[in-house]
Amino acid sequence: MTLDTGTLPAGFGRLWTAQTVSSLGDGVTHAALPLLALTLTRDPMALAAVTAAGTLPWLFFGVLGGALVDRWDRRRTMQFADTARALLLAIPAAAAVLDVLSIPLLAAVAFLLGLGQLFFDTAATAYLPDLLHRDPALLERANSRLRGAQTAMSGFAGPPAGSALLTLGRAVPLLADAVSFALSALLVRTLPATPRPAPEETREPLLRQARAGASYVVRDRLLLGLALRPAVGNVAFLAVETVLALFAHDRLGIGAHGFGLLLTAEAAGGLLGAGIASRLARRLGTGTALTCTAAVEGLAVLGLAAAPDPYAAGVALAVCGAAMGATMVLAPSLRQAIVPAGLMGRVASTSRMLAMCAAPAGAFLGGWLATACGIRAPLYAAAGLLLAMTAVTASMTSDRRVEAALRAAARAGVPDQPAPGEPAEEEASGVV
């Protein structure tokens, strides 16, 4: 079934609202957590531990989480994940009020928040193509709106709000994020139901299902290329993020409010990138557009590393954000259009796991390079990684492979259950 590409269903509006509210709270915490950590320590490795902790759930539970999402009701999974995260944030808020906040506690909370994010994001990614009946144009349009709202809230509005709320008390930004999760959970509860897995699918051993999802990604060159880019990218971006607050303070000479505005510049670029993603794909082709945005990311981080003042750094972050925003619309939309429904959770979680498992390496790489070679070293290293990754994956996500995969999915109707580990069509896999 193909929907009218001019109309998104009413359920999407509620999903968009839920994610927008939650993203605002995430933006508040995104700015507040590193600043909270800076009130406790100046050690780059300790800061790296807090940053890396939020990504570790993907290392331990990524593929299994996707297999569970393919078994469970995706709407209820999203609701439970947001409710749990709202309750969890009460712990560091209470610790801040009682003045017992610590780096280990912040790292533990970051880990559990990351676990909730794993289940929510995987379920939401699998839920959307069911809601939109895998219409490629609708998926691209919906992801553009979702990414635009996420960027606006988590990056544009949230970080300055987080910096400002932190001046009212260390617990305030944490409580604000808790409220956002609670509101999101209430909205998710109103979403329309989607088909449940067949009973025989839930009886298959969990590990076998998880392996099938991972094998499907690894054996399909297009999906593997789409997964490798964020994996290498996360090494680079976490190396930058780990030291960004310290870089802004020590090299650019800006404080907490200035740091929030710096993140806002990146978010403003991301908002623009999400808005023009479809235009780039039509003008250049989806594969070429993805290669160009990856190259721009590397060049922008190089510019950030060499930035002599906050204004130049803000421009570099805005350009990087625009490239990232376009990438994060085009790549998920393509994946959702070509992956069978019965494998969507596992494919999404495998791809995200590869990206998130690389992040701790990037966080510790950034901390180590800053300690050993200076605060700008992680930024130069990140730029080199991004440009190398662009060259390696360009042929894996070429226009030819993208067009072949879309044609194969359209002919096959994106069947729910291909053979485990096998692409839906030989042409779509791009295996040579």
TrEMBL record:
* Domain of life where this protein originates: Bacteria
Q: What transmembrane ranges does the database entry give?
A: 45-65, 86-113, 168-188, 226-248, 254-277, 284-305, 311-332, 353-371, 377-397
Spans annotated as Disordered: 412-432
The record's principal subcellular location, in a coarse class, is membrane
**Which intervals hold domain Major facilitator superfamily (MFS) profile?**
1-401
Q: Sorted alphabetically, which InterPro entries does this protein's record hold?
A: MFS_dom (IPR020846), MFS_trans_sf (IPR036259), TM_effector (IPR010290)
Keywords attached to this Swiss-Prot or TrEMBL record, sorted alphabetically, are: Cell membrane, Membrane, Transmembrane, Transmembrane helix, Transport
Does the record's keyword annotation contain Protein biosynthesis?
no
> PROSITE patterns of this UniProt entry?
MFS
Q: Where is the composition biased (Acidic residues)?
A: 423-432
Membrane-related topology note: Multi-pass membrane protein
Per UniProt, subcellular location reads as: Cell membrane
Put simply, this protein is called MFS transporter
Taxonomy, top ranks, is: Bacteria, Bacillati, Actinomycetota, Actinomycetes, Kitasatosporales
